[in-house]
Amino acid sequence: MPSAPRILAFSGSARSESLNKKLLAVAVEAVRAAGGEVTVVDFKTLPLPLYDGDLEDASGLPANVQTLVTLVTQHAGLLIASPEYNSQITPLLKNAIDWCTRADDNPFLGKVAAVVSASPGAFGGIRSMTLARQLLVHVGCHVIPAQCILPQAHKAFDEKGALKEERTLKSVHTVAAELVRVTGALQPSQA
Ligand code: FNR
Description:
The protein contains 6 helices and 6 strands; from the N terminus they run E-H-E-H-H-E-H-E-H-E-E-H. It has 191 residues and is an alpha/beta fold. Strands 1, 2, 3, 4, 5 and 6 form a 6-stranded parallel sheet that branches. The longest helix has 25 residues. The two termini are 15 Å apart.
């Protein structure tokens, strides 16, 4: 029997009350329900310094960056929640991806990736999500077409962190199922 597709999940916001972390948590459960095995990274507990070429020249990849590179390498799929700052992806997310691409072997090459995005605004972070997808393709990922945005995200969750609207939950499950399916299909040549 083929092994469960291994998915690494992280959010581009480390904020304790992050709406993107909440959406990610829902998506993680959906991936597990679809048969994926998920590891979640929280950049609050795995902080990365801001990329600095002098730092890299002096001491190579920082320990937490090496940990992240290893985690990306050990997983066939990525589930990323991308918050939006000034119509862009967050510095945290860009910095994490930039650091990882400085490893001897680009860990993103051939990974299957899915992006979701939550924002209190009307557009649900779609500009950020689009840029995150573009960046992931650029670093070598196969980004699945299915995507999920969550506008008015500050009103979207109940006190237990569940999505109030069935329609949104359905769209999260669609992304999760497709991520697991495509990751599983490509896994044998990548694992
Ligand atoms: C924002 N926010 C925001 N939202 C949006 O939909 N489009 C945008 O361009 C911006 N710009 C922006 C800039 C900066 C500097 C901040 C701090 C915030 C609001 C943002 O989506 C909101 O704070 C989210 O709650 C951030 O994501 P987390 O931390 O809740 O996951």
